[in-house]
Fold:
Amino acid sequence: MSAPENMSAENSAPSSGKILALSLGFSLLMVLVFTLVANLLPQIEGEASVEEEVELGALTMDSFIALGETLFNGKGTCTLCHNAMGRAPDILAQNMVGAAEERLADSRYKGKATDAESYLHESMVNPGIYVVAGFGKKGSNDTVSPMPAVHKAPIQLSEVEIGAIIAFMQAKDGNDVTVPLPTDAPVAEAEPEAPAAATSAEEALGKFGCTACHSVLESEATLGPSLKIVGRKLTAEEIRQSIIDPNAVIADGFSGGMMPANFADQMMVKELEMIIHFLAEQKG
Ligand code: HEC
Ligand code: HEC
Structure:
């Protein structure tokens, strides 16, 4: 009569060990899965990039310049091209007031600017009027600028924001800032909305500056490969990799290190998925 008891005791010992092992294994698996997911997926929250609030009444020259620096690195998307990669003049590394004076003295200069401030302004809103030698659109013999006008979509800086960036470009090398502090500009214009999640792939491609470098939608940009038939060339998974890890595979005829490698940190998952889906459908 004790045999069944023994049997059940013998059975229960190994089976509770099994359960322990199983549940330990399960916890470990979950930890692994979470780690993987956390590493693979861009942060869901996105880094709601901190937009400066401009209260014009309280604006000091220092905060105006700081706003310019924030815009230069953020909403202005200037550093996408103006960096040490050599595709555009390295604005942070060169004294732009000195550069402006050289440009104005160049016999090729046909613009309307008369001093550094007006040259920098003109370069931003009408980049094609004077193309820095060696930086023109491929094949245009420096007659066409690859730079988008920054007061137009997708960058769409206001006059106050453009002024702040000029102030930053003047101040960073110790030059006098000649841009007057804005006083009467409407606050609404100067105060950028906190970036909301894009609601369509088209909007996301503009929001993240893809259109500044790639031909896609209305853009004919040539700094990166055209994306108009990318769906024929790459699978959705390859497109995903091209966006979150652009240097893993370099497109033929282009150099690596050019496309920003931090989109995964900036995008919400939904935005990334919309872009991938949209690009995978681009088959010409
Ligand atoms: C898509 C790439 C791209 C973006 C984005 C871009 N630029 Fe440019 N920019 C260029 C290129 C290329 C040139 C050189 C050709 C020319 O003169 O237009 C240039 C020229 C300039 C010049 C003249 C430089 C000189 O040495 O004379 C200024 C000033 C300038 N950009 C400012 C800006 C600012 C400020 C922003 C952001 C608000 C910006 N750019 C965004 C590509 C870009
Ligand atoms: C500053 C310029 C720049 C910006 C901004 C940029 N890219 Fe790129 N992109 C490139 C360059 C250059 C390449 C080719 C080199 C490489 O493969 O990394 C490339 C490659 C790609 C490829 C692979 C294309 C192929 O034919 O293999 C895809 C897809 C792509 N980019 C999508 C995007 C998307 C989506 C965005 C916006 C979220 C974006 N890019 C923003 C410059 C840029």
Notes: The beta strands are 215-216, 219-220. Residues 80-81, 208-210, 212-214, 223-225, 227, 230, 233-234, 239, 242-243, 246-247, 250-251, 254, 256, 258-260, 263, 275, 279 surround heme C (ligand 2) (CB under 6 Å). The chain has two domains: 56-190, 201-280.
